[in-house]
């Protein structure tokens, strides 16, 4: 990033600041809108993969994360299967209904009995969270709304089977994506994240500068 290009800096800042949880979305749209949505999603997934990761896994794919993407008929089918298995409660049916895509994000823990395994696994999970945030920011920059959900019931074995997650994968969360509702609909039927307004400034105490002066 070149600091002499303030427009680039402003664009990145805007994506970070304006990203917010939107639980109820307006689907993927139709026709050109849907094409744009799917293109944006593909580009954003590629950018998710630009996240840092510390340790390669030993199999053919070095990244610790896995992204399972559901759109269109596959999303409707999976939604139905989760509903039939009685795994959707509370707001989840409504959230599924309005999503244009759902991405199940998982990571692959290592299982060898080495003293280093726990530390490596912690870093695999942290890297997967970084890739997930990349996805949220890249979709935000393309005007696509998102919600990072971690409902435990969608991460347990019966749901993982329906999602089609691979052996040994651990769910980090489900990312619901779609075009945002209009401002009027958002005010009437939107759900935001409960921590949204609870952010504090760095000098409230969570950021300490080790200042020697
Ligand atoms: C790891 C992780 C898991 C989350 N799981 C849930 C969840 O299960 N349900 C929920 O309502 N929000 C969940 N969220 C979203 C947060 O509630 C939301 O990001 C927070 O309220 C801040 O709002 P904002 O995203 O609009 O800034 C999760 C966020 C993270 C990072």
Q: How would you sum up this structure, described in words?
A:
The chain has 213 residues and is α+β, with helices and mostly antiparallel strands. It has one domain: NADH Oxidase (3-Layer(aba) Sandwich), CATH 3.40.109. The protein has helices at residues 6-18, 31-48, 72-84, 92-98, 117-141, 157-163, 183-189; strands at 65-71, 101-107, 145-149, 170-178. It has a four-stranded antiparallel β-sheet, sandwiched between helices. Helix 1 crosses helix 5 (117-141) and helix 2 packs antiparallel against helix 5. The chain is globular. The structure holds flavin mononucleotide (FMN). Residues 20-21, 148-151, 173, 192-196 line the site of flavin mononucleotide.
Q: What attributes does this structure have?
A:
213 residues, binds flavin mononucleotide, NADH Oxidase, four-stranded antiparallel sheet, alpha+beta, 13% strand
What structural class do you assign from the helix and strand content? alpha+beta
Strand line-up across the major sheet: 1-2-4-3
Chain-averaged pLDDT: 95
Bound ions, cofactors and other small molecules, one mention each: flavin mononucleotide
**Top CATH class:** Alpha Beta
Q: Give me the count of strands.
A: 4
How much helix is in the residues? Answer: 40-55%
Q: Going by CATH, what is the homologous superfamily?
A: NADH Oxidase
SSE string: HHEHHEHEHEH
Number of helical segments with 4 or more residues: 7
Estimate the strand proportion: 5-15%
Total domains? 1
Uncertain stretches of 5 or more adjacent residues: none
Rounded to the nearest angstrom, the distance between the terminal CA atoms is: 30 Å
Mind telling me which CATH architecture this is? 3-Layer(aba) Sandwich
Largest sheet: 4 strands, antiparallel
Q: Indicate the overall shape.
A: globular
Rg is 19 Å
CATH topology: NADH Oxidase
